Please model this.
Amino acid sequence: MLISSLVQFRLKKDGYETVLVKDGNAGIIAIDTETLDLIITDVMIPFKNGIEIIHHARKTKPEVPIIVLSSLGEEEKIVLEAFNLGVADFIPKPFNPNELAIRVKRILNS
Amino acid sequence: MGQEELAFPDSISFVDFLKNQGEIPGLQYSLVDSYGKIFLDSITGIPLKNKGIADFTTALALRDSLFLSYSVYSKIQFLLYSEVNTFEATQEYVSNLLRNGDINPKIANISNGKDLISLASRERYSPLPSSLFAFFGDFKIFIIIGIIALFFLIALAMIFLMLIFKAQGNRREKLFSLYDEQIVEPLSEILFEKSLQELESLTDGELNKSFPAKQLNKPIYRQVLTERILALNKKMKGEFKLKLKALYKRLNLDKVTIEKLKSKRWDRVVMGLVEVNEMDLKEALNEVNKHVNSPNFHVRSQAVATVLNLSETADLSFLRDQTFPLSRWQQMNYLRIIKYLNSSRDLHINSLFSSHNQSIRLFGYKLVRILGLVELLAELEEKFKVISDEEKIEIIKTFEYLGVPVHAEVINDSLKSENIELVCIAAKAAGEIGDLKSANIIYEILDNAPGFRLKMILLKSLRNLNEELYNQVIIKDSNSDLQRINKHLLDPLLQDV
Model:
């Protein structure tokens, strides 16, 4: 949660409105109920993994780009699956929040 | 009849029996005075119960009523088939009836009376408990009650303790969540809004606006802060790492970490070592060095990894002096760090060869192999004559792996060993880095080589070294194993299996 809070803080600083959820179930609900321009998700999250979130987002909001944050140690298969599902970007951990902010800006401007 | 044992042990039990039994066939009773005369009825003048009284209880009642009404003393006479008989004869007669089953005794009545009398005579007199709690005087009951009470007390104490621990745990969790929330904002502000220089030049007062001094004195707050900074440090890179490390020191968390290294609890020491390692606290290296030969596996492993990671000057000589054996897990862990460090500085890996600890020496040989340290092979060859077979195996594997064909002598010596495992490894290596002498030795030992596996390795190596000798062996020897191995080796599909 601390990492997501930091990312939220950084994006708010850039003037973005953000919705922070603490687990996969809340993420699914947020995708269904909120108006979103971009989704940032980790692969390993409680209750539902990031791939399930991406699947759901692709089904219900295919136009919303997704950025995946993940540790390099995580299975290559999962990362490849995420790319196959059409995620916009993949940022391996450890990461630099400023770099993430730049990528967010680039995706939203394109 | 007289020889048979009487059914009644004494006269009392016989009289009791008569009282309980009622009428007995052939037995009647009459009442006589002290002269032996039969009592007559005062009105009719005929003898009282002239035909005899059938029931002994009735006879007793009549006797008692005579005494009570007229104060006349009378006694009961026994009539067997209307003839007067003695008490003993009557007792024998009744015993005979019982033995023959002619009458059914009312056993319950007899035995009850008898048991009560006999039990009463055996039981020692003791007064009834005089008070309600007198039973406490019985030590057995007292012990049982004591055990039960103790059991309940312990159960209650445990429940009480569990509740206390649970409450403490809940309180701790709540505090963790609370401090977690409190930390996020100031931490984010410092990381995103302050440069490294600004962070380092913050005064205590400025810092305490974000992280109050009062809170920093609380161990749980410090723990949450430490854990969060460490977690962020793992997941972030670039200047954020530097800021986190600077913040860690500015908040004096490094001093808490160094204190942990002095703890008597091994888990706290390990935690401290992890913190030193993650936050690059080089000033704690002196304290860390004290733990590199700790008897605790986890402390020792973490301390060695920390020294290797942080020290810019330390070589592997500190590892050489370790007295505890290295586990495979430790070897893998150290290898990962050594592999990274070896390219940047000289770690004196050869110092491990002179360790008194065999597992350290073996680790040294493995490092030579994995890191490809060809320049150390000559040192290994020098040591070869004075080391154990286990070490020889590791060194030969290293020679073979690095494929340097100048150490055939050690391989040739090993081929003559009595240790089959060593011969196997040497034979395998000979195939790759052996010489003509190796081929001749293999040729010599092949005849007496025990086991199919060794023969196969020897033949394979011989074929690599000298095909002519190999063919000689196959031609001259009809040994079925060698012929099978030959077929195997010549088969293009099987030769590499």
Observations:
- Residues 2-109 of chain A form a domain with the Rossmann fold fold (CATH 3.40.50.2300).
- Helices of chain A lie at 2-13, 24-33, 50-60, 76-84, 97-109.
- Residues 20 and 45 of chain A are 13 Å apart (CA to CA).
- The mean pLDDT of chain A is 87.
